[in-house]
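Researcher: Quick sanity check before group meeting.
Model: Go ahead. Protein one:
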Amino acid sequence: MLRDRLREDEVVQTQFMMVCDNELYEPHATGRWRDLAQMPRADFEAEAEAFIKPDGVFVALRGIVEATKG
């Protein structure tokens, strides 16, 4: 769903791709999310923490969204 929405704005899509290409786009995305779903809970929690820490992917994406709001 996120990839579909990103197609609506090429500038935002490009910014998202620069920040988290392997997380959203093939050939790595499907395997990455599958691996996250199957890893032990403690490992998953460590990976998830990396997304939301102050210099993590989701913080960067939030900054992109805030900067592009019209």
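Researcher: Fine. The other one?
Model: Protein two, sequence then structure:
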Amino acid sequence: MITSEPTPDTRTDLLREELDRLHFYGNNGWTSGYGQEQAKRLLRDLRSKGQLDRGLVLGYMLAKQHNGKSIARLGKIIDQLS
């Protein structure tokens, strides 16, 4: 059903802060090194809190203008979390 109303933003302030931090760590496209290690730590933490939504994370990074290759790399990182 189309209502012409904006979709409500259900993200918490904390989740938005974490997504912004993840965006910062992606300054090198989440390649090996500090940014990737910090991203893994942050993503594991989100997962442990039940707040890791792969589509939301990748969509947010797309909206922040990360390129497709970087977003694909981040998707692999999410998929390989242990």
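Researcher: One line on it for the slide.
Model: Residues 34-48 form the longest helix (15 residues).
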